[in-house]
Design a protein that fits this description.
This protein is α+β, with helices and mostly antiparallel strands. The protein has three helices and 14 strands.
């Protein structure tokens, strides 16, 4: 069996444990347990656990602060933190926390933070997951937030002056809608849906205004003979060069052509009616 021997256990005048703990029958690594006597440190009332032996001679492994915080692996710990781990942490069970959870919370380094906040000061945000990547400069923050029932995905970049430029990439609303407020949504594949709504501003109903100058059919014929596509409709070369079409713009262009075709048909109908009237008059004269 391995015996645990505590040798020379007692307090000295400097509040130290002068001797270490010895495992087994022969000393191997000694533990030095003492109070932090650094008057300039805010941790001067904390209890230090150090290992004596090897190189360097003494290594601090743990710190128990006067407010109940525990630092493992020689890391620093803030006055409000209860646990700081400098190294790998193996957790085989559940990890329950009522506060924030930081993974590598060192400034200007990659890390992961889970922030829990139910206050209205943060617009009702209760979960904020932030991944900070540092490939030199700038530092990029990615936020996933529960904002009034919507999951908002934000991105923040360093503006070069100590500030942060934040941009909402997209959000998933409580009703299932996905909103991309800025930029484009690129889908490398097919889109299968029941309905597509495209917002447009320029509706070509002005074609039916009396002052609209309708191109004659003769002018249209000459344009097609010269350009091999309809007027105001992009050519095959233009569509391929632009990587496709703007669905809203193209629909309005096609609608305009349909309205112009309707005007041509009305014009032809008026001509036919006039010709029919003339034919009827000639028949009367013959009879």
């Amino acid at each position: 069996m391995i015996a645990l021997v505590i040798s020379n256990f007692g307090f000295s005048q400097n509040d130290e444990f002068p001797s270490g703990l010895t495992l087994g029958s022969k000393p191997y690594w000694n533990w030095h347990v003492y109070r932090d006597n650094s008057t300039s440190s805010p941790f001067n009332q904390s209890l230090l656990f150090a290992v004596i032996g090897g190189s360097p001679g003494e290594t601090i492994k743990a710190r128990l602060t006067q407010w109940g915080g525990l630092s493992l692996g020689g890391t620093t710990i803030a006055g409000t933190d209860l646990l700081s781990v400098g190294g790998n942490a193996l957790i085989t069970g559940n990890l329950d926390t009522k506060g924030n959870l930081y993974l590598n919370n060192i400034s200007n380094q990659a890390g992961l933070r889970f922030l829990f906040d139910n206050t209205t000061a943060n617009n009702g945000a209760d979960v904020d997951l932030t991944v900070i990547t540092n490939s030199g400069s700038p530092i990029v923050d990615w936020h996933i937030r529960n904002w009034y029932g919507s999951y908002v995905f934000n991105r923040g970049t360093n503006d070069g002056s100590g500030g942060t430029i934040k941009k909402q990439l997209f959000r998933i609303e409580g009703n299932g809608n996905i909103v991309v407020p800025q930029g484009n949504a690129i889908i490398d594949g097919k889109v299968n849906c029941e309905e597509v709504k495209v917002e447009v501003l320029d509706i070509p109903d002005y074609v039916f205004e009396p002052e609209y100058q309708l191109r004659t059919l003769k002018e249209t014929k000459e344009f097609i003979s010269e350009n091999r596509h309809l007027p105001e409709i992009p050519s095959e070369e233009e569509i391929l060069m632009n990587g496709g079409i703007d669905l809203g713009d193209m629909n309005m262009r096609l609608l305009k052509k349909i309205e112009e075709l309707t005007l041509y048909q009305i014009e032809l109908l008026e001509r036919l009616e006039k010709q029919q009237d003339e034919i009827d008059e000639l028949k009367k004269k013959i009879d």
